[in-house]
Amino acid sequence: MCLTYATAEATYNFAKRFAHYKDFYARHNGLIFSKLGFGTFKKEPYKEENYIFDYKEALKTAIKSGVNVIDTAINYRYQQSEREIGEVLEELFARDEVKREELIICSKGGFVPLDFPFPANPYEWISEHIIQKGLATTQDIELDQHCMTPAFLKDSLDRSLSNLHVECLDIYFLHNPETQLTRIGYNHFLKKLEEIFASFEEHVREGKIKSYGIAVWNAFTYEEGNSEYINLEDVYDVACLVGGSNHHFKYIQLPFNIAKTNAYSVPNQKMRDGNYYTPLQVAHKLGLGVMSSSSLLQMHLFQKPFKPEVGYLLDSKMELQSDVQLALQFVRSTRGIITSLFSSSKSEHVSSNLSIASIPATNSAKYNLLFKVER
């Protein structure tokens, strides 16, 4: 039988093929996740050079080298990132080089995707593909770029499945919902989440997704009172309200890197017990898996060399060769994160990044010392 989603047995067998790797796999919700996941975000997709390159060879290298987590979004490079992933998956499945059930495939919906190549008039595209189809009204679309009506998200999900050449996504994220939070207010936001999560639960029943989550930028790490702050327990309560104890809200995604550590280090999330916890602590208490994005901060981490102390604490035997590898060693060593995303269009960079699998994760004592040294 050909399964259409990741399974516990298949992801475990995938990881066993790389048994020589050290501390490179983590289990959550029964599935085995590679500690590094392949991401496909590229900022400024309207620039010509971002139409030219593709991720296909880099993605093949990643999968063949032990990465089984693939993350994308329908709006990345105007659907082109998803389509390239779909071409790679179709090729690798046909050659039996990897099975669908060995891979954890994630995408996101919420931003207006437009299309590749970029439409001559994006406003006409929005009118034709969203407004005239009754997926949303102009009032539902924030800044001409973000929409989260259930009908629009269903259409986005169906497009993603088609682009990726799969029947089911393992994780489907609501993408940066805080984009609309300031305008609609927090209470209205939670009511909209009820509608969205109810539709996501229906998509689970339809077999289009196995689980869902929320992918944010700063919403889970801002201080209380910020206009884009979201309380994670409030979101969890919405999932329980619409899905009961067997709801499928299982994951969150947020940025985390050696310069942006709030998710691990700042207790900004208040829970019902009256205490404040870090987002990672809250996720653990609620049983949510955490995927981290922006592991390299779009390469902005490397404007100056890391301090020698950082290298020693992360790699005391000096086996790694670059600050990029050290930055990835940092995120993969973070307790409470099941996978950390990196993006690359070059196979040689993928291979270099994955060399961190040859050494163990940094232990907790040395990891926590990093917060006491200048980075």
TrEMBL record:
GO cellular component: cytosol
InterPro entries in the record: AKR (IPR020471), NAD(P)_OxRdtase_dom_sf (IPR036812), NADP_OxRdtase_dom (IPR023210)
Highest taxon, organism lineage: Bacteria
Domain NADP-dependent oxidoreductase: residue ranges: 35-361
PANTHER family in UniProt: GH17980P-RELATED
GO molecular function: oxidoreductase activity
Name the record gives this protein: Aldo_keto_red family protein
